[in-house]
Amino acid sequence: MSNDAIGVLVMSYGTPESLDSVEEYYTHIRRGNAPSPEQLKELVDRYEEIAGGVFPLRENTDRQVSSLQDKLDTVETGRYRCYQGLKHARPYIEDGVQRMAQDGIKRAVGIVLAPHFSTMSVASYNKRAMQEAEKHGIEMSCVDSYHLHPSLIQALAERVRDGIDAVSAKAGGAEVKVLFSAHSLPVRIRQVGDPYEEQLLETSRAVAEAARAGSWQFTWQSAGRTNEPWLGPDIMETMSSLAEGGEKALLAAPVGFVSDHLEVLYDLDIEAMAHAERLGISFGRIRMLNSDPLYMETLADSIREAAAKLPS
């Protein structure tokens, strides 16, 4: 490999490699504070309950990085080399940058597997990557967001259309309301003019229009358990109020997420599905992007745009 190659640090939240590493993972999320036995058991139980346990989640992230490498190679063979960097699991963001340095990479692009920018999420990934890159003399340009990329909107719209058809059929032809969702963040992000919420609404509007969704709204999910208030309402509350208002069929469209992981496979497929059954309404979820070619195209375009800003 030529040292002229541009490194691509593909960043994501991270998942444990096995059930044995859940405690280390949870401790890292809690900034070095080990979880209580009760907290640890609850998280392990969730991983055990989703199909196949923890392993498919890590494999899915690995597959996304591999698929992105393949896509970049079809566009410009040998120009880009992908590395993985995780926020809360090995290889950490810093590990990915260090591997670039060991391979002689001098220029790099950082991109997060999350389409929407927030000072509390994407910004923190990019900051860690840039700080580590500076230590090794690597010039790095980071992608902030790609929430309105045409290929992303197309991929999501296709999934929403398919999901509406499936839930409507299950509900005997009833009209389906689409619930776009994303991971909640503390309410204080609004005080600093954080773009996260508006970018999510922009994505939702664009997807709803492209999918010709007749009825939709945005809601939140998977809020953290802290003493401060988080953005709401939560999807469970939204489902309850809609059922009380006469809605018969709901489709979850978690546009803030790009792959199958705990917040989708457990929070939606298990908890929200069980809640829908209690409410007596039909419920479904769109397929996640994972390694979809249109999503890989979105990432590749964003990376090439960022790379163009690097010094030659």
From TrEMBL:
Gene Ontology process terms (BP): heme biosynthetic process
Q: What highest taxon heads this organism's lineage?
A: Bacteria
Query: Where is this protein localized, as stated in its record?
Result: Cytoplasm
Q: Does the keyword Cytoplasm apply?
A: yes
Q: Does the keyword Oxidoreductase apply?
A: no
Per the entry, what this protein does is:
Involved in coproporphyrin-dependent heme b biosynthesis. Catalyzes the insertion of ferrous iron into coproporphyrin III to form Fe-coproporphyrin III.
Annotated protein name in UniProt? Coproporphyrin III ferrochelatase
Q: Which organism is it from?
A: Paenibacillus herberti
- The coding gene here is cpfC
